[in-house]
Design brief:
Blueprint lengths: L2 H5 L18 H13 L4 E4 L2 E5 L10 H7 L11 H15 L3 E7 L5 H15 L4 H21 E2 L7 E2 L2 E8 L5 E9 L17 H7 L4 H6 L10 H4 L16 H14 L4 H17 L4 E4 L2 E4 L2 H10 L4 H9 E6 L2 E6 L2 H31 L7 E9 L9 H32 L12 H8 L5 H10 L6 H12 L5 E3 L5 H4 L6 E6 L2 E6 L3 H6 L4 H8 L4 H6 L2 H5 L7 H17 L2 E8 L12 H10 L2 H10 L3 E4 H8 L15 H12 L6 E3 L3 E4 L2 H76 L9 H20 L17 H22 L2 H17 L6 H4 L11 H14 L9 E8 L6 E8 L4 E4 L6 E5 L4 E7 L5 E6 L10 E4 L3 H12 L6 E4 L2 E6 L3 E9 L4 E5 L2 E6 L1
Parallel strand pairs: 2-16, 3-12, 3-16, 24-27, 29-31
Antiparallel strand pairs: 1-2, 4-5, 6-7, 6-12, 8-9, 10-11, 13-14, 14-15, 17-19, 18-19, 20-21, 20-26, 21-22, 22-23, 24-25, 25-26, 28-29, 30-31
Helix pairs in contact: 2-25, 4-5, 5-6, 6-7, 6-10, 6-14, 7-10, 11-12, 11-14, 12-13, 13-21, 15-16, 15-24, 17-18, 27-28, 29-30, 32-35
The structure holds adenosine-5'-diphosphate and magnesium ion.
The site of magnesium ion (MG) has 5 residues, from α5 and β5.
Length: 1031
């Protein structure tokens, strides 16, 4: 069973009855079927046997997709299905090349034919395909509608009930492709041709012809097309109004299907015509009225009889005679005698039944000829669709045969199953234990024993001379086998049993239950008498089919034909041989209710069938050994997580040992659990449930664990991937960096070498080695050496050292830079400053190194006015009035001391000079004491010492000449410079005296000024002279 199914066992019963704890209880069995049926689960296993409950609705269970799903999948891996059975048989056939058979059994309407069809369909779908094979597949599939048309009928139980048993071999070539087939048919219920129970129908073909709408056909057969016009089919023609169930047969459509099938199966037009002639003839035959008169039996409607004769290809006279007479052989001579009415009616109906039965067999033969394959390398899968156990209110000869057939199949089943079971145990090296089960051989012997069997009693009775009746047959049985445990009759029954059985009945205790048979009709049906006249008439027919099915040999054969019972027995024995030579699989069909309802589950009905089918026997046989067996690898893999020793894997030994460890852990002893050569065997389902529960519990734990592990593994994988990527990336990056570094180093080395070479050759004329170096040196010097060290100030005369190669450039740059600084400096000078500097320059040229106070005056700027602010305005006023220039033209104004020319008396005076005049004023009253023209100044004499003396010498003017002016000033250099440069416009007037000199006095007289070096600085009269002392 599939693991999922095990898990779901509580919800929908068990998927395999072997796991049913209460396996001896019919109720439990039925309950499980019911639970599953209600959930639309129609299939359940008993080990390898499939139990199928008719769903009476389309559950979409047979799609081509599903076929593919089941293809080559291990039997227990998927939920139970008829495809799984077909698949197992097909693949076993292919791999072992051993013939297989699938036995489908069950009550009428339980779904046998449907199951067989699905198996056939499955084989067609999954097997190899080619054009040739396609044709065969088609023919195999089409044999169904054909045989159904002629062999199926509507019964109270099934609208499409097969009224014959069928065994079909499908032959496969080495590649598994179907190449042919063969059908065996069993015991057609021919009585149906002339009579049906209430609510039932004759074989479908009659209705198909009548309802075909094929006017030509109806006309040829002289049929009206109305069911009610024909006695054989009209008797229960009200079948369509049967209340409780839905009638599903559509005759018109199925007629077309039958015609298609005939064509596909290669029936010639002539044969098709002949077949329908026979069908038509039978319909008419039912309407041939017979009545008794004094002169014997007469045919009331002779034209009907003639029509029948014509349709059957027989001459009217011969046919009519055959209907009314019987010819028997007496001591080798033919003696004809007319039939009485009863005999004639019997003969008419016997003829209908015989013709129909033989036609059916002929159809099967023809199909076989079409499907025949003349090669010996085929393997077959046989499909047996045969009637199941039947129990009616009144059971007759047919039921006896059918139930006998089921006893036989049960026996085959037991033999084969036990054999297989036994084979498996011995193959697996497991000790075989005696299985306690009911062997129905005892019943089978009761029926078919050569001398003491019911069939042989019946035959004896049929062939015995004298008066033979059904009652005499019963008596024979009572005296022969009355004491048998499985035979019950009124005569020998105890009081209790007598209440349930009539005098003309006997009861057999079948393996599937008791069935009471009424002996009425046993002798007649067993004899199955058909008068020679009819056989002869048919033999001479122009209808080739009739000639074939009533062979001359039979007519000529003087031996008594085999009885129906013996024929059936023989065919069953043959079937048994066929089945026993094959590997069997079983489908057991169960019908949920008698109303064809998809929702009713009739417990009683199902229990009944479960008994009939011997399903409890099935189960017991299966359970007698070990309930569960499975390849130990599977077992180990499934349950290894239950033991620490075997989880996550068992390395210390084989899987078989691992299985044993798991079993020990479960506490199973050696009786409950066995390890075979390839499988483990578990005795009780309970054990399986235990281990499954443990597994379910463990799974939850493992799921968490696995989840964590999986996450870990995934994370690790991711990490490894990232790490690998990073490694590759960093390796490449490092390589790249290293390459770059190496290149840089190489470049650097080249540069350095170049540099060194350049250095060595630096003073040589430019060449390829020193070119670079020189450029670098220049650049270095210019950018790093010269640029930061450039003088910022015009007075800064510094200039960085320069290499040899830059000397020329250095000199030029230095000059340029100097010029630039000068230009900048000059541009930045104000007019005052410029004037100041001009004065200072003039001053320097005149006084530097010539007068000792010069250097101390350099820092002090010259000022054009040394007059305090209070006097400035007044001086301006005086100059404005006196001089020709305005006050703004004052070149210089300062306080001076004037020494009188006579006596050298010092007097304070203010000197103010313009370009046109030089004024001396008294600071007290601002009176102009003297006024001179600058152009008249001849000289400005100063000493070389640090005194403030200055003498302004004038050109002699003659009359009015006052003589030279003797002054002293604190700013003597400033006075001399401004007066000379601005007023006189001539610096050359400045002269230096270092010793003694004269100054002019009025009237051409002269005074003396003596210059004396020493301290303190003074200007004093000494004698006649003025003595100037300075350092
Ligand atoms: N598996 C199935 N799925 C659907 N309907 C089914 C199935 N088996 C049987 N039937 C219905 O039940 C009817 C009787 O089945 P059939 O196979 O003819 O029974 P049997 O051959 O056992 O007498 C079919 O005509 C069909 O309508
Ligand atoms: Mg059937």
């Amino acid at each position: 069973m599939a693991a999922e199914a095990l898990a779901a066992r509580d919800k929908i019963g068990v998927q395999d009855f072997v796991l049913l704890e209460d396996f001896r209880s019919l109720d439990a069995f039925g309950e499980n079927l019911k639970k599953r049926f209600n959930e639309k689960l129609i299939y359940t296993y008993i080990g390898p046997v499939l139990v199928s409950v008719n769903p009476y609705r389309d559950l979409k269970l047979y799609t081509t997709e599903l076929c593919s799903e089941y293809r080559a999948v291990e039997f227990f891996k998927l939920p139970p299905h008829v495809f799984a059975i077909a698949d197992t048989a097909y693949f076993a056939m292919r791999s072992d090349r051993r013939d297989q058979c699938i036995l489908v059994s069950g009550e009428s309407g339980a779904g046998k034919t449907e199951a067989t069809k699905q198996i056939l369909k499955y084989l067609a779908v999954v097997s190899e395909n080619s054009r040739e094979v396609g044709k065969i597949k088609d023919q195999l599939l089409q044999s169904n509608p054909l045989l159904e048309a002629f062999g199926n009928a509507t019964t109270t139980r099934n609208d499409n009930s097969s009224r014959f048993g069928k065994y079909m071999d499908v032959q496969f070539d080495f590649h598994g492709a179907p190449v042919g087939g063969h059908i065996l048919n069993y015991l057609l219920e021919k009585s149906r041709v002339v009579q049906q129970s209430l609510g039932e129908r004759n074989f479908h073909i009659f209705y198909q012809v009548l309802d075909s709408g094929d006017a030509a056909l109806l006309q040829r057969l002289s049929l009206t097309g109305k069911v009610d016009d024909y006695r054989y089919v009209a008797s229960t023609a009200n079948h369509k109004e049967r209340s409780e169930t839905v009638f599903t047969i559509k005759d018109k459509e199925q007629y077309k299907e039958t015609m298609d099938a005939l064509r596909v199966l290669a029936f010639s037009t002539k044969h098709i015509e002949e077949i329908f002639n026979i069908v038509g003839a039978i319909l008419h035959l039912g309407n041939v009225d017979l009545s008794g008169s004094e002169s014997g039996v007469v045919i009331d409607n002779a034209d009907k009889a003639e029509l029948v004769g014509k349709l059957l290809g027989s001459s009217g006279a011969q046919f009519k005679s055959a209907m009314l007479n019987k010819t028997i052989l007496v001591s080798g001579d033919k003696v004809a005698s007319p039939l009485n009415l009863e005999e004639a009616v019997y003969s008419r109906d016997a003829m209908s039944k015989a013709i129909y039965e033989r036609l059916f067999s002929w159809l099967v033969c023809h199909v076989n000829r079409t499907l025949e394959v003349k090669r010996s390398d085929t393997a077959v899968i046989g499909l047996l669709d045969i009637y199941g156990f039947e129990v009616f209110q009144v059971n007759g000869f047919e039921q006896f045969c059918i139930n006998y057939c089921n006893e036989k199949l049960q026996q085959i089943f037991i033999e084969l199953t036990l054999k297989l079971e036994q084979e498996e145990y011995s193959k697996e090296g497991i000790e075989w234990e005696q299985i306690d089960y009911f062997n129905n051989k005892i019943i089978l012997d009761l029926i078919e024993d050569k001398s003491k069997g019911i069939v042989s009693f019946l035959d004896e009775e049929c062939t015995r001379p004298g008066t033979v009746t059904d009652a005499s047959f019963l008596d024979k049985m009572v005296s022969g086998i009355g004491a048998h445990d499985h035979f019950v009759c009124f005569e020998l029954a105890d009081r209790e049993a007598k209440k349930t059985i009539e005098r003309d009945e006997f009861r057999l205790v079948h393996y599937a239950g008791d069935v009471t048979y009424n002996v009425k009709g046993f002798i007649e049906k067993n004899n199955d008498l058909l008068f020679r006249d009819i056989k002869e008439a048919m033999q001479s027919s122009s209808n080739s089919i009739l000639c074939e099915i009533f062979p001359k040999a039979e007519v000529l054969d003087k031996k008594r034909p085999l009885t129906a019972g013996t024929q059936f027995k023989n065919s069953l024995n043959k079937l048994a041989d066929i089945l026993k030579s094959k590997v069997p699989s079983y489908v057991r069909c169960v019908k949920p209710n008698n109303k064809k309802s998809p929702v009713i589950f009739d417990d009683e009905l199902v229990h009944h069938q479960v008994k009939y089918l011997g399903l409890m026997e099935n189960l017991r046989v299966r359970r007698a050994g070990f309930a569960y067996r499975r390849d130990y690898n599977y077992f180990y893999q499934r349950y290894k997580c239950l033991c620490t020793e075997t989880w996550p894997s068992y390395k210390a030994g084989t899987p078989a040992q691992a299985c044993q460890i798991i079993a020990d852990k479960m506490g199973w002893n050696s009786t409950d659990f066995k390890v075979g050569k390839t499988k483990v065997f578990i005795r009780n389902p309970k054990q399986l449930y235990e281990i499954e529960d443990k597994l379910a519990h463990r799974k939850v734990e493992l799921a968490t664990l696995l989840q964590a592990q999986t996450r870990k593994v995934l994370a690790r994988k991711h990490f490894m991937r990232v790490r690998a990527a990073v490694t590759i990336f960093s390796k490449n990056w490092k390589r790249l960096v290293a390459r770059r570094l190496r290149q840089r180093r190489r470049n650097a080395a080249d540069e350095i070498i170049k540099f060194i070479k350049g250095f060595i050759m630096r003073n040589q004329p430019p060449n390829e080695f020193n070119k670079q170096f020189v450029r670098i040196v220049r650049h270095q010097w210019l950018v790093h050496c010269l640029k930061p060290a450039l003088p910022k100030d015009v007075l800064d005369k510094s200039w960085p050292e320069c290499p040899l190669v830059c000397q020329e450039a250095s000199a030029q740059l230095r000059a340029l830079h100097q010029r630039k600084l000068v230009r900048h400096y000059v541009r930045s000078l104000t007019a005052e400053r410029k004037q100041q500097l001009t004065w200072k320059l003039t001053c320097r040229d005149t006084f530097k190194d010539k007068k000792s106070v010069y250097s101390s005056t350099v820092p002090t700027p010259f000022s054009q006015s040394r007059i305090e602010d209070a006097l400035t305005q007044r001086v301006h006023d005086v100059v404005g009035k006196t001089a020709t220039d305005g006050p703004s033209d004052i070149v210089y104004a300062t306080h001076v001391v004037k020494y009188d020319r006579h006596g050298y008396k010092p007097r304070p005076r203010i000197l103010a000079a313009t370009a046109s005049s030089v004024l001396l004023m008294d600071p007290k009253n601002m009176a102009v004491k003297e006024q001179h023209s600058p152009s008249n100044i001849k000289s400005l004499t100063v000493t070389s010492l640090s005194d403030g003396f200055v003498m302004i010498g004038f050109n002699a003017l003659g009359k009015g000449d006052k003589g030279d002016l003797l002054l002293s000033s604190e700013h003597v250099i400033e006075l001399a410079t401004l007066l000379a440069s601005s007023s006189c416009n001539n610096m050359d007037v400045v002269t230096f005296a270092s010793d003694e000199f004269n100054h002019s006095l009025p009237a051409n007289k002269q005074g003396t000024v003596r210059v004396k070096s020493g301290a303190p600085v003074s200007i004093l009269k000494e004698g006649n002279a003025l003595v100037v002392t300075g350092e």
